[in-house]
Target: Carrier domain-containing protein
Amino acid sequence: MIPLSYAQRRLWFLNRLQGPSAAYNAPVVLRLDGVPDPVVLEAAVRDVVARHETLRTTLPAGPDGEPYQRIAPAGDPVDVAVVDCGGDGVDAAVRAFVHEPFDISRDLPLRVRLFTDPDAHGSTLVLLVHHVATDGWSVRPLLRDLTEACAARTAGRAPGWEPLPVQYADYSLWQHDMLGDPQDPTSVAAEQLVHWKDALAGAPAVLDLPCDRPRPAEPSGRGATVTARLDRDTHRRLAAVARGRGASPFMAVQAALAVALGAAAGTEDVAVGTAVAGRPEEDLADLVGFFVNTLVLRTDLSGAPSFTDLLTRVRDTDLAAYAHDDLPFDLLVEHLNPERSLAHHPFFQVMLTLQTAPEEGPEPSLGGLTARVEPVELRTTKFDLTFFCAELPSAEGQQGGLDIWLQYATDLFEESTARLLLDLFVRTLTALADDPSAPAAAPLGPREQRALRELPARTGSAPAGTAAPGTDGAAGAGDPVDPRVEILCGLFADLLGRDRVGPHDNFFRSGGHSLLGIRLTHRIRTVLGVSLTIRDLFLAPTPHALGRRLSGPDGATVPPLTPYRPRPAVLPLSHAQRRLWLVDQLQGSGPAYNVPVVLTLRRPLDPDALHAALGDVVGRHEILRTTYAASGGRPQQTVHADPVVVRHRHVRTTAEELTEQIHLDTRHTFDLAAEPPLLSRLYTDEHGSQTLVLVLHHIAADGWSLDRLLDDLDTAYRARAEGHAPGWAPLPVQYADYALWQHEILGDGADPDSLLSRETAHWKQELDGAPQLLDLPTDRPRPARPTQRGALAPVALGPSAHEALVRVSTQNDATLFMTVHALLAVTLTRLGAGHDLPIGTVTAGRSDPQLDRLVGFFVNTSVLRTRTDGDPTFRDLLARVRTTDLTAYAHDTLPFDLLVEHLNPHRTTSHHPLTQVVLQLHPAPAGATAGPRPLDGTPVPVDTGRAKLDLTLALHDRRDADGSPAGLDGVLEYATDLFDAGTARLIVERFVSIAEEVAADPDRRVADLGLTGPGTDRGDTSTGGGRAYDRPVPSLTDLFDARAAAGPDEVAFPAGHDGAPVTRGELAARSVRLAERLRRRGVRPGALVGLRMAPGEPLAVAVLAVLRCGAGYVLGDAAVARDAGARPVLTETDVVTESGIPVLEDFASHAGRARGDDVACVHHVTGPDGAPAPVLVTHRALAAAVGRGGSGAADAPVTSAAFSLALWSALLGGPAGTADGDERADRVTRTTDGDGPVRLLDTRLRPVPDGVPGEVYVPASGSVYGVPGRAGTTAVTVVADPLGAPGATLLRTGRWARRTADGTLRFLGCPGERVRVSGLPVDTDAVRAALLGLPGVADAVVTVRPGGSGVTAYVVGVRAAQPGAGVDEATVRATLAREVPEYAVPSAVVTMPALPRAPDGRVDLSALPAPGSAARSSDGAGDDPRTEVLRGLFSEVLGGRPVAAGDNFFRVGGQSLLAVRLVNRVSSVLGVRLSLRDVFQAPTPARLAEHLRTAGATEAAPPPLRRRARAGAGR
Model:
């Protein structure tokens, strides 16, 4: 590919920077005295374009963003057209045409138009050429070649000119070769750079001229022109002065302009630009192309030189410049690296050209027509000021005067000011021509000086709306880092070849230049998928500023943030504040949302000065003197006047008492309606050490406010310590202004074009179908009313892992946050939370630079929906996460409470909506400040003992002094309602383990991560000598007989088959008698006996009797027994009858003794098709299971029906009573048995570590023969032990569990067992446990019926004989509402005499009756008159829409603030006490009526607040 010449590169870059424009159009306008033949004209233009390659060259960018020359074939079409104009239309058409923009990456640089007027004799030909293909020198060869081509084509032939010796592309290649590598000190480029670095050292970046308007950050490029003339005589005198000093006329003009500009700007250092031809070789003379170069000519006006002395300086400077004019201007800019800005041109802003008098020559002729070149006024400008000087010819060949045109930027100057500057220049020329010895300011009169001094602006001031040079509004290194900013830091560093670039490092000051900037924007567009131009980089040259520029809400025009004057009478809360106010209403006031700062100070503070400084800070930040009260259910801000009483105390204490004092302070409960949200304490202990405690409520500050607060407090303290008030500038806006602005920019949700509507539409699509509640590895059921209590588990990753994770992030164009996010997602998936994970994070929310210094609550919560399915590698997952996070941050303007309101998930007090897990990664804290500060101190970690969500992982990105990773550390904040400390530690261990694995190998698949750690080493099943079944087997009947002998009168069953209690002695005797009858019927060791009967005393007798025979039993009906090969099959009648026949001889002498590997029973496990599959269980396995399960462990993995284990638990030592066959009665059991440990394996039969869910496998070597007659099932149900000895097998139970920190198993049920209501998982075990805790309930089962929308509970009363007796449904629901989430409270409670059970002992859910009319649903209207009143109040608050008794308030249009109004209305109308929490827990009229009835809410509400007459009123 052919590179661009340096001149082309400069214009290509400017075209990219400014976009397609007319700023560099170079039109040639020819007035013809006739109309040429259009066919001849087009042919001639084709000839010229074919001759000069540059006229058919476009400049596209390659894949790397680097531009190249693309030369079109000579025969390609050219843009030639004839335009017919009427009346005065020709001039207007010409003006419009010459201002047409070019995109030189796509458009050919030549367009030709012939404008004709039917009413006129002549015509106008316009050759519109972009400057990238021409320069002033090129006009002559262009017109000459066009003249010759027209003549030839008129004669019917092609032009016969000689081929050009070289083309522009040859020049481009030659230029690169000639200049060489600027890094090579022997190259021409390097040598010339040495000169220019010295020549321009210390030059001012901008010539600071007086002007009418401030310089805009983005110039419009619009210009206008004023003209003047220097008369002939003055021109000749000026030329004579120049000749006398050996200078050229240009040098004399330049010197005069420097004097004029120096006087106007008040400077002695003036730089102007000028153009040089740039055609050093003769072969280039006849070539059309862009050869000119720009030189910077710096004039030193110091010392008040005479004009002649100044001319000598100028001459020497210019001659040196011309001797070094091979260095292209853009290389000069790239290597000298001046301040880059779109607002002004680098090095100079004033351009000067002098055109010498043209030689006499023939006018161009086109096909016999005379052509006259006409100057064109382009209303565009590239510089602040451009002075065009043209020498006029005279008959005698001497100077004939100067025409002077001043083109000025209308962004800066009015015409009057431009004329003033032009007049100043002309009078300077005149004065210096008249008196060469005059000093620099002599030409300026008082009138001009006064006029210039009174202008309102200066061109050297910082552009309007931008930060000062070198800054980007940065507030500190610890500022929040948008993930895009972190990615931008990596991309900046990559392009600049640096290890690291900080968020506030300027691209151009760090070694970047224009073309590197083009490549950078190309990379950013590719990586971030955003619309970006080089213009954006100039306007925002740091990662922080560019990230902020990219984060505007989808290109919408946002009104500027300004102070609101006057403010409305009612100040609304910001949306973030509104959410916290609602939480405060819902959960009650507490310390959960306190933001504490505790510092052990390094040097003592003056308590009085500190108190005064706190007053200054509170006065500076309105938010610190704001309270929040409700009026009519609507919260509003009240900003209290300054000064206010600052709640600060200096307390003398002891080091021993200090910890408790801090503990009390940081747990302070703020009354948001009555007290300001800041509390301060200064403690001085007995040793003189001081500790500063600041406690803020989160409604007034976020984490990123703390640095601002401490900075301001430090400034104020310094001032007060010196005896004066701080002299800070007022803040540009206050938090109340932000709150008003936020409501304004979001707009109306009813307007589909509003920001609110667009952002809501995005998030509805993004979160559609996402789980509302994550399935976390909790230790306890979720309570109905969380206590908000929490604790912290430390997290730490070392520097090497931290560095590796940073490297993984950079390699994948991701941020460290994204990598940590992906690690957390893998951890949650590994812990059983699934593959669709809504993870929350906090964004800074300071979208406007004016908010940078403000204390306030700006943060917002974004939901990052993370999918880990599909078995991706970690890199693949990171790419997904990157896309998710970038999309989320591009849509982070929607406040979280509005997101909840519009997505309308199920409202409940039991968990946080949309996400229950939050990730925070705090950037490296700011480095040391210059010098010590009064508030320097060591932060004291504070545990408030609270948790806002289920889990919050908060990490700090620690860095060394050089910015190198120094470790990731932080805490896991967890809700102690749900998690034990051991489980929290397991979660941290999984996260750290996975992070270290990824750091070592980021190409591992997600399914292979997180499988190391405690628990995976429990697979050793070696027995140390001999097989398991050779060891002695404990006899369950012997154990039972021993227990019966020790307590023969203990009750084993409260009611036997005849209703009378059965003791252990009686049970033993009956089982011995039945065993003898079975032996007589041929039952021997190894045989199977079917037992077809319900749970109860006869079944217990039968099981004991079968095992006394050394045989095994099969639970189930005749078909089940037949399938298992059981004979005989006993019924309850058989047992009752035969166990009553006396034994005539000693049974013990005939009893069979089972071997350990004989079958004891046939149990059922879930087969691969989901159906129950029978498995033979040995005597050893059954005995081991009983020993493992202990009392009440009714969920042993060896059984599908846990009946046997529950039975044996009761028989061998559990409490007397009916064995409970419900599988879910208890989810905890010990994990070892006689055959070795129970195994937890993943789907690939790999051991899982503690805390990680796995399927339960039981060692089965020599114990389980398999499924009788079902080889296929056996192959799946009984598997080879992947870690055991050869031949060792495992029994697959179909149950899932995880091992807790103390080694116990917590069972999670079978896949597909979980039931859901409104998309939320219902823990039926927890509901059942709550039911069993009620005094009148003996047994219960909880289910969601097929097609049902709520939970149904079936209960057995203690003495219930008739349905509906003994259990009050409303009381049940009211009690459960205090213990389980409201969506899990049964909508129907059905009382039954007994629960139907399947033959294997499980509750037969299919046999449960549907709730009938007798079982009143809580969503029915019932007979409570308050239900109708509540329906009316619901309807009133919801704007009049009809509401049924069972309608959920939040499902029919209600939201949190409306719920507050509903609470107020209900309390007022019904005279009851009601809280916002009550509406969340009972959100339908029927439920709320039931709550009011059962909660005993009869206490009258407080009397309404009324104005009362006061004593002395009106006197």
Summary: The mean pLDDT is 85. The chain is about 35% helix and 20% strand. The domain at 788-924+942-1008 is CATH 3.30.559.30 (Chloramphenicol Acetyltransferase). The CA atoms of residues 78 and 1005 lie 57 Å apart.
